[in-house]
């Protein structure tokens, strides 16, 4: 049920975890995980690693984990990676908790509010991670680095679902309008996020970022 596209994240929205095996195997020392951030567009890069053998996997994001010791649903899809200098490329296919997609383009209204339409649906068939839909947000900002931790609270708007009510919106077109009119002669960036009451810190899944110019 993956989209085949890079997963969209807020800044700091997921990590890559590395567990070095070669030093531990040589010395008997405990493995100390190393974490680094995934970028908002789903890519990652680390140029400061020692040569060696690692277990590597995406971690702490809005997707079904690669590795979990939860007794209700243990998972282990960690990959062993050999890094011996030069460039090593790894691609992970993750199952987002929700797939969030734009429907059409943002509309600048006559009063200079902006309205967007979008759709969210399940991104996984793993029943352990299928939870009730909790919230949907229209994020607005003057900068393109948008997410639940980086938004203009005066403009951004949300729908908060109670109980199972959000599940009825799955697969339907949902609309949200900014709280206030946008300012004149400026470019604004917009993004939609939605989340479930999941087991991973209730992180949001996102659309990509769109911009709108206000005359």
Topology:
Blueprint: E1 15-20, H1 22-27, E2 34-37, E3 52-59, E4 67-68, E5 75-76, E6 79-83, E7 98-102, E8 107-108, E9 114-122, E10 133-141, E11 157-160, E12 174-177, E13 186-196, E14 205-206, E15 210-214
Antiparallel strand pairs: 1-2, 1-3, 3-6, 4-5, 7-9, 8-9, 9-12, 10-11, 10-13, 13-14, 13-15
Give an account of the 3D structure.
With 215 residues, the chain is mainly beta. It folds into two domains: 15-83, Carboxypeptidase-like, regulatory domain (Immunoglobulin-like), CATH 2.60.40; 98-214, Immunoglobulin-like. The chain contains one helix and 15 strands. It has one helix at residues 22-27, and strands at residues 15-20, 34-37, 52-59, 67-68, 75-76, 79-83, 98-102, 107-108, 114-122, 133-141, 157-160, 174-177, 186-196, 205-206, 210-214. Strands 10, 11, 13, 14 and 15 form a five-stranded antiparallel β-sheet that branches. The chain has a four-stranded antiparallel β-sheet with strand order 2-1-3-6. A hairpin with an 8-residue loop joins strand 13 (186-196) and strand 14. The chain is globular and about 70 Å long. It starts with 14 loop residues before the first strand and ends with a strand.
Describe the structure concisely.
The protein is an all-beta fold and 215 residues long. It is 3% helix and 36% strand. It folds into 2 domains: 15-83, Sandwich (Immunoglobulin-like); 98-214, Immunoglobulin-like (Sandwich), CATH 2.60.40.
């Amino acid at each position: 049920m993956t989209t085949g596209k890079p997963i969209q994240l807020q800044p700091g929205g997921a990590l890559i975890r590395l567990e070095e095996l070669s030093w531990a195997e040589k010395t008997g020392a405990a493995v100390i995980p190393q974490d680094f951030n995934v970028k908002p567009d789903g890519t990652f890069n680390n140029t400061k690693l020692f040569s060696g053998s690692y277990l590597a996997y995406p971690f702490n994001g809005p997707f079904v984990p690669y590795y979990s010791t939860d007794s209700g649903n243990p998972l282990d899809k960690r990959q062993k990676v050999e890094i011996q200098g030069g460039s090593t490329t790894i691609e992970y296919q993750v199952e987002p908790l929700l797939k969030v997609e734009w429907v059409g383009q943002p509309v600048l209204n006559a009063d200079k509010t902006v309205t967007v339409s979008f759709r969210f649906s399940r991104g996984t068939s793993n029943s352990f991670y299928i939870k009730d839909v909790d919230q949907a947000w229209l994020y607005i900002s003057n900068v393109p680095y948008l997410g639940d931790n980086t938004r203009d609270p005066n403009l951004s708007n949300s729908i908060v679902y109670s109980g199972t009510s959000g599940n009825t919106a799955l697969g339907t077109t949902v609309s949200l309008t900014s709280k206030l009119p946008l300012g004149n002669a400026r470019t604004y960036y917009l993004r939609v996020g939605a989340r479930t009451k999941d087991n991973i810190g209730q992180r949001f899944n996102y659309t990509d970022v769109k911009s709108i110019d206000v005359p």
